[in-house]
Fold this sequence. Notes:
two-stranded antiparallel ribbon, alpha/beta
Amino acid sequence: MTINCNGKLISLHQPKVMGILNVTPDSFYDGGKYKDHSSILHQVDKMKNDGASIIDVGAYSTRPGALEVDEHTELKRIVPIISIILKEFPDTILSIDTFRSKVAKECITNGAAIINDISAGIQDEKMLTTVAQFNVPYIMMHMRGTPQNMQQQTNYNDVFKDVMLFFSERLLIAKSLGIKDIVIDPGFGFAKNLNQNYELLRQLEMMRFIEHPVLVGISRKSMIYKTLNSTADQALNGTSALHMVCLQKGAKILRVHDVKEAMECVKLHNQLNA
């Protein structure tokens, strides 16, 4: 199981860690933390040294109720960051967290290797054709609505079955356009309430029947800190606990704020399953 990132084959036989770099002022955990070139490069360097195989850069906060960011602002935030990172660390595999095809195109042209789309191509009808044109790996996530209204769209007959049906439909379209390397993300916290998040997690191993690698993004999310009556700042231990559950259930990529601790989970998981 591999994905081709700018000509470099990344094996997912053993799970990988994707480090989060938000260059937004309002992300739920690290919003506004990385404002200048120095802090951005320091964080990338730290994540790479801690073991991140991929750095996921986002310039549009997708937390519940986040403010809308126009395309021009998103481009202005993210494109210069790609150049800065790749100039300093040219071997970095950059993933771009965007649902806009124009942002994806500009970022790939400037050296990004992966597109991570929270809408699976639904919010921008040109996204799938753009990804196919550039032949880059594509992460498609399950969500309903937009970050602004998704938490009002949690009415499912069966959340797991509905998510699986969603992926079967989106994968069919993506493959018909020629997209080869596809990763699926069940979208914990996106148009799902707390109980639905845990129902998805309980059945996560069943997603192997889709026969695509599964990415999990649960780092410091409310499904953890609300259960523990704490905060995102205090949710690292709970995050690590659920990361191990996800790995045991077949997750191949962990998208995380805390790379060192996630890598420890991966190493322990690998030893347990050696």
